[in-house]
Amino acid sequence: MSHELKIERIIDAPAAIVWQAWTEHYAEWFVPRPWTVELLENDLRTGGRSAMVMRGPNGEEMPSEGVYLEVVPQQRIVSTDAFQAGWVPAGPFMVRIDEFTDEGGKTRYTAVARHWTPEARDQHAAMGFEAGWNAATDQLEEVVARMVTTTNSASSPQPCAGVQCSANAQA
């Protein structure tokens, strides 16, 4: 579609983990470093509100507010900035579509920015869409990798330590 910008990536983890990283660790990956994001509200359900402030290293602030149009756990999130809380119209910029497709233990992550006009798409591209969204996705992959490592460590047999091990050895 001529109004779209898109990135796609295969992430080396199941969709459930990528979904969890996307939804529960949003502030760790959503904006490219050195920017940060403060999540003010994230009601992750169809019709729910999202509100955040993105902050730059030189004191820049970019508030962003929108609503979730569709939420299918571990599969798809569709959101827009065309509305604010209570379905109040706002100056529309885009509809964002994030998809998580399980591919044999890996996840095809697709993020699409669908704009109202080609001009809005071009404006977003000129703002650094490709570099910015790819950097954010790199950061999402870092969060996922950390979660996978933590999960694998927690499920690995642990060496015996302390009083409990001594008691088990004597039994």
From TrEMBL:
CDD domains from the UniProt entry: SRPBCC_CalC_Aha1-like_3
InterPro entries: ASHA1/2-like_C, START-like_dom_sf
Source domain of life: Bacteria
TM spans (from-to): none
Location of the Activator of Hsp90 ATPase homologue 1/2-like C-terminal domain: 12-144
Family: Belongs to the AHA1 family.
Name of the featured protein: Activator of Hsp90 ATPase homologue 1/2-like C-terminal domain-containing protein
Species of origin: Sphingomonas jeddahensis
